[in-house]
Amino acid sequence: MTERIHIFFFPLYLVLIELVMRLSLKVDTYAFLGPTLAAVGIGFAIPLTIPKDITRTFAQSTQKVLKNHGAAVYSRRDYTFVVLVRIILLLFTAGWSYSLYLSVESPGKTLCYIPVSLGLGVLNYVVAIVLSVIKEII
User: Fold this and answer.
1) Is the model's pTM score more than 0.85?
2) Which residues, in sequence order, are CB contacts of 48 under 8 Å at separation 6+?
3) What is the DSSP string of 77-134?
4) What are the extents of the domains in the chain?
5) Buried (b) or exposed (e) across 95-108, using 16+ Cβ within 10 A?
6) pLDDT in tens, 51-101
7) 113 — alpha (psi -120 to 50), left (phi > 0) or beta?
């Protein structure tokens, strides 16, 4: 798990670089931080839609029989999680689309002093990290 922490924070490094460039070049790209983070959240969640094959936990003879039949074994809990993540991906995509729309049409729209576009992006990003951690535990 700890080896994945740098992966989770990598997009934040990119956002920091973007902020530095924006400030130094005097170009306002702040409105696009939300859609960027939302897209990163989608990118984190996509690999979670593949169930973990637990065939290797069986005896060698069982693994051989399964391989001969072209079969794989998945845990019911992981399969349920994969279905849930696929549904969440649809919501993430809708959130990304709306975030992108807001960043172009209403960049000043806020909720509790936070730009809605940025809030949606951060939400996608954080939920994707939480889902990644849950997938590791399952």
Assistant:
1) no
2) 81, 82, 85, 131, 132, 135
3) HHHHHHHHHHHHHHHHHHHHHHHHHHHHH-TT-EETTEEHHHHHHHHHHHHHHHHHHH
4) 2-137
5) bbebbbebbeeebe
6) 998 988 999 999 999 999 999 899 999 999 999 999 999 999 999 989 988
7) left
- Give pLDDT, residue 25: 64
**Residue 74 φ/ψ, nearest 5 degrees:** -125, 150
Q: What is the DSSP letter of 74?
A: B
Q: Which residues contact 52 (CB under 8 A, 6 or more apart)?
A: 74, 75, 78, 135, 138
| Residue where the block lists tokens 């002093």 | 113
Residue 45 · residue 88 · CB < 8 Å:
yes
| CA–CA dist 85, 127 (Å, integer) | 10
Q: b/e per residue, 25-53, with b = 16+ CB within 10 A?
A: eeeeebbbbbbbbbbbbbebbeebeebbe
Tokens of 119: 């809030």
Rounded alpha-carbon distances, angstroms, from residue 126 to 57, 105, 114: 32, 25, 16
CB 53 within 8 A of CB 137: no
